[in-house]
Amino acid sequence: MKYIRTLVLVFTLLYVSNLNAQFTWTPAKVILKNGESFRGLVKFPKNFNSIITIGSSKFKYRKNKKSKVQKLGSDTVEEVVFGDEDFRTVHFKYVSVSKNRSILMEEIIRGKVSLFARTTLTTETIVDYTLEDYETTIYYDKIDYYLIKETEIKATKVPAVTTKYMYKSFIKKYFEDCDKLVGYIEDELYSRNELLELVEDYNLLCDE
């Protein structure tokens, strides 16, 4: 279990590093829905985490540093791939989160249940009551995770801040079609930090 936790920590550090790179001009391969593909420089928007808006779902593309900038979105793009066969590849896809909304997210696990991750710029206001009228706002990146089954049309967001009981209830409900996994969840085999392991076990142990 210590080895698994170490792998999860290494994966998290790699994920944060790779994800932050996508907000600057980065070489990538763009795959369109019609099967065509091309390489160039890609820059993702830094989305603002808000109740009112999810943020821009389009990204910027240009063939090289001197080329004209284009905006591409879910209407034409199937996938964006960073890296190549000599390096770790990172895949971003548009994932449906509502009837009329798709969001560009990183594909972490692909299978009967796929796991996606998305970062947003989040704010938090801190008030120091020991100082008169002292208030400051900090900005930080927040990573949200989404699950989607092959039979589902839209993804389900994994609750960000919950109690242990609420999280257990969520994963038990979502994976209720696999009795073996539900038994493991009842025995509290999976902590909140072991979401990747949970999804991988579902794809490995659970029948169609």
Describe the structure.
- The structure is a single chain.
- This protein is α+β, with helices and mostly antiparallel strands and 208 residues long.
- The chain has 2 domains: 2-158, no CATH class; 161-208, no CATH class.
- The longest helix is centred in the N-terminal third of the chain and has 20 residues, at 2-21.
- Mean pLDDT is 80; it is low at 1-21 and 50-55.
- It has helices at residues 2-21, 164-174, 179-186, 195-205, and strands at residues 26-32, 37-43, 59-62, 70-72, 77-82, 90-98, 101-109, 113-128, 134-149, 156-157.
Number of DSSP helical runs: 4
Helix content: 10-25%
Between the first and last Cα atoms, what is the distance in angstroms? 28 Å
Overall number of structural domains = 2
Beta strands, count = 10
Along the chain, the helix and strand elements come as: HEEEEEEEEEEHHH
Query: Strand order across the biggest sheet?
Result: 4-3-2-1-5-6-7-8-9-10
The radius of gyration over CA amounts to 19 Å
Mean pLDDT: 80
Shape: flat
Stretches where pLDDT is under 50 for at least 5 consecutive residues are 1-21, 50-55
Task: Give the strand content.
Answer: 35-45%
Largest sheet features? 10 strands, antiparallel
Class inferred from helices and paired strands: alpha+beta
Summarize the structure.
This protein is of the alpha+beta class. Helix content is 24%, strand content 38%.
